[in-house]
Amino acid sequence: MVLDAQGVERALARVTHEILERNKGVANLVFIGVRSLGVEIAERLAGKAATIEGVEVPRGVIDITLYRDDLSRAGQQPAVKGTDIPFPIDDRQVVLVDDVLYTGRTVRAALDALMDLGRPRSVQLAVLIDRGHRELPIRADYVGKNLPTAANESVQVRLRERDGRDEVVLIRGEEG
Amino acid sequence: MTFTHRHLLGLDGMSREELLYLIDTAASFKEISERDIKKVPTLRGKTVVGLFYEASTRTRTSFEIAAKRLSADYVNISSATSSTTKGETLLDTARNIAAMRPDALIIRHHAAGAARYLANRIDCPVINAGDGAHEHPTQALLDLLTIRDHVGRLEGLTVAIVGDILHSRVTRSNVHALRALGNTVRLVGPPTLLPREAAAMGEVHHQLASGVRGADVVMMLRLQRERQGRNYLPSLDEYARYFCLTRAALAEAKPDVVVLHPGPINRGVEIASDVADGAASLIMDQVTNGVAVRMAILFLLASRRGAQVEAPANEEAQPERRRKVG
Fold it and tell me: Is A5-20+28-68+80-171 assigned to CATH 3.40.50.720?
């Protein structure tokens, strides 16, 4: 166990405060969650921001499947669930939200997907866990917890919306 | 679930889960066609070839647009301007195309079974864009997606398919899928335009009124004049008098009935203009959804390497696992 329910809660609360501080409120902000767990985390951040600022931050969902760099290497295609961003992102300050930052390839794909949809004023990255092992020059602006890991470990994020409880666990030495 | 088929030859034998997976995947591609920049990089560097042995506007254009919105290179071959006119056989033409290493081959042909024939003989995913009176799977999938968009569900519906059932590959694909999903299918038409096996495909009706009575969905078929021998119908006028879907005829169906037609429509023959252009008509939605369906099929079949390539041991290639680790 890396984070229990309270740990997840505190980490998200701190990330929310950092986002609001850096952006001086929520005026031009939008949260875009990366499918699948980034969607729920973006909802949590938006909920906390609404409590603090009294304003709803618009939320969107981005599906990076069509932008992956390993599609033609896979035997079977991952499911496409679709992108759903019901507002223009032009000139908005976008906070891209994901659960775990690892190789950086997902974020690369998400940035490409985002740029096809418009021209945001800026894009910032918020993640619950940064587990290292980057393969691309990408870093997060907001990190819930830095978690040094070995390449053969895997990080599992469980959220109450789908798993009934909040926790982050590190699973050691599974098949690489 | 994952979709394991290498080709899309027909919907016969496809499970409910597979059908819903295809429809769900197609639904998620719709958004791309609503964007300012209607293109995603998914099939960059892939080549898709369309081989059309029959006239086609909608299907051919729809496949081409679908391929291009996925960033594939699309090449179309129409039999009228190909070496077919010099006597080359279908198989030889297909083998030569396959030798240029396309990532998917779309085939429309007047002979039933043409798509399977090629799938068994060339090393490339084959997509059936209509083979004789056999199947037209992408048309049925876009019909299903359109029905679900507007009716809200895809089971427990009564669907009346009306007209030239005998020559209709669209009907055959739809019957397989609609029944696999748990709907009631009615086949409505004059006895001469119903195939012998009609009773095994659905409830048979020879009267338009009884056929559409209480239906949730009415699917009109084009009277395939180019395939009409002399003996099917006394005259077009007589056919229209009994089987043209007019507003009065449609009043027999449920009040919120939806009307589909695969196109091209013969106005005043199988469908009245005011119905084709009316509020219940989903004909243009079908066309819009056709692009999404074909994008989904191309994504599923053309983006992966064939079964002849070993699955890489690299974890980046394991999508399910990779999602969890970020």
Answer: no
